[in-house]
Amino acid sequence: MSTLFRKKSIDKIVADSEAGLTDSHHQSLNRVLTVKDLTFMGIAAIIGAGIFSTIGTAAFNGGPGIAFLFIITAITCGFSALCYAEFASRVPIAGSAYTYAYVSFGELIAWIIGWALILEYAIGNIVVAISWSGYFNNLLMGLGIHLPGWLLTDPFSAAKDYQEAIAFTTKNQPLPQHLTTAIDTWTNAPVFLGKHILMNLPAFIIVVLITILAYVGIKESKKSTNFMVIFKIIVIIFVIVLGFFYVKPANWSPFLPNGFGGVLAGVSAVFYAYIGFDAISTTAEECKNPQRDLPRGMIYSLIICTVLYILIALVLTGMVHYSELKVNDPLAFVFSKINLPWVSYIISISAVVATTSVMLVFQLGQPRIWMSMSRDGLLPKKFAQIHPKFHTPAFSTIITGFLVAIPALILPSSLMTDLTSIGTLFAFVLVCFGVLVLPKMQNAKQGRFKLPYINGKFIIPILAIFFIIAFHQRLSLAFEQMNTESYQEILFIVFVAILVVVAILSFLKNYSTIPVLGALFCLYLMIEIPAISWMWFFIWMGLGLCLYFFYGRKHSNLCPPNINC
Fold it and tell me: 90-104, 107-121, 300-314, 330-344: which has the minimum mean pLDDT?
């Protein structure tokens, strides 16, 4: 058991990094990123498919009160960002939460979190690529270019929509437009060996192009990211300012049409809009001054995006009634609704740019996590290979491209949004708890950002008591439904149990308030995600553990020579 939780030393990590010996070929990455670049990269990763698409469903469920959920989620991410900032300051190398867990909890937890981050970066990018394809097709149609439907969708979604359309026709009901399109797509698709050929070709192509850019180098990626961020911020500010002239205050009443439960129903969609600020921590070895700039970049980008998100939520729900917002492109929809189609076209362009920037940051992040895992011996050495000319993790970048491009070509995105949110929240929980067990700094200059210490001895227990009192009815109902396979309520009971344990430990050990609240907020958001996504999450984790015990544990650099680990 002791080998499963062996830890890396912060002092050795920093010493190796400074000596330039952190990869297997003794080659370093290019240190070219400044605090401005990191802030732009954070904004690039955060403002993407979430704000341009999933916000519509969240607003449909929660009404104008969805603005509260953006604030709650921002606070949650803010607590996590502060914890990331301390880790980034003290452990200034690539690897993000994976490396942070290695020094806090040990190897097994580090592997688990590294495996979970694949859900955030690689699997999450599949969703973004599919979203990009939809917006790109809208742009082409605006130019009079119409791609065949079988090149714009996956076979599973096409088959499902076709069957739904057939069911409508048997009832002699008029077909909605999207089902009419589904019939045309299915019937006009080429057939090979009795199978209809359908694929999302634009999604595949954009992933290939982004992978090439990430492969070529961080300088090129930085310039592209900065340009895309400036463009989409200008468009979003323009949308907010113009939209406020068309706001009807009557649309904000009632502010919470479905109560606070309706607001929380949008947790996965809203949190998905925040995913990405932690991705910049994977670029630590490409920062000019990671100990100073990484914390600033994360916090600055989170603050800027939160303000923009709240304003957009208020504009959307003020321009049209919340019940009309369950659409794939809510920002474009509301301006079409008020007869300003030219604004919708600008928004579609911005959406293409925004989702492109998200893909670029995520395609940069995933290879660097694999590179760190490979350096530690948990993955084959090939994953740590640095390109001699471009100074990028070449092999890992190519593998990431394949892992994203092929599924984006043929798979639907519905389940992947929830999986991405679970994987990210799981990483956040471990990072927040990890700060509590970080070893004391031996060298004061080692970390330039220090998480403010607020004694949680009384704060955490008092907040826990207030929570249990406020949710006592749900807790009682959860116990009543335990025997009815209501998995969502079982998750709530588990959360309350963890809350009580953490409150007791906070009282006994004087834990810092910020990381504890960060972990608890993330845990609560996790239990609001549908139970079916949890099932797939556990399957994914089980697969990862099999790989660790069959390969990683035996080949770990921390495995002593001549010892069977």
Answer: 90-104
> Is the Cβ–Cβ distance between 64 and 325 less than 8 Å?
no
Amino acid 463: pLDDT: 92
Instruction: Give the residue from 402, 356, 400 showing the smallest Cα distance to 379.
Output: 400
Take residue 375 and report the two structure tokens written for it. 């350096």
Query: Where in the chain are the domains?
Result: 2-9+31-143+202-446, 155-197
In this structure, the strands spanning 191-192 and 195-196 are: antiparallel
- Report the Cα–Cα distance between both ends of the chain, in Å, rounded: 10
Q: Whole-angstrom Cα distance, residue 138 to residue 239?
A: 18
| Residues contacting 57, CB < 8 A, separation 6+ | 266, 269, 325, 326
Task: Say whether pTM exceeds 0.90.
Answer: no
Name the token pair of 19: 């000596």
CA 334-339-343 angle, 5° bins: 65
> Using an 8 Å Cβ cutoff, are 183 and 150 in contact?
no
CA dist., res. 98 & res. 109, Å (int) = 8
**Among 229, 276, 273, which residue's Cα sits nearest to residue 71?**
273
Hey, what CATH class is 2-9+31-143+202-446 in? mainly alpha
Residues 530, 488: Cα–Cα separation, whole Å: 7
Residues 6+ apart with CB under 8 A from 180: 165
* pLDDT for position 24: 43
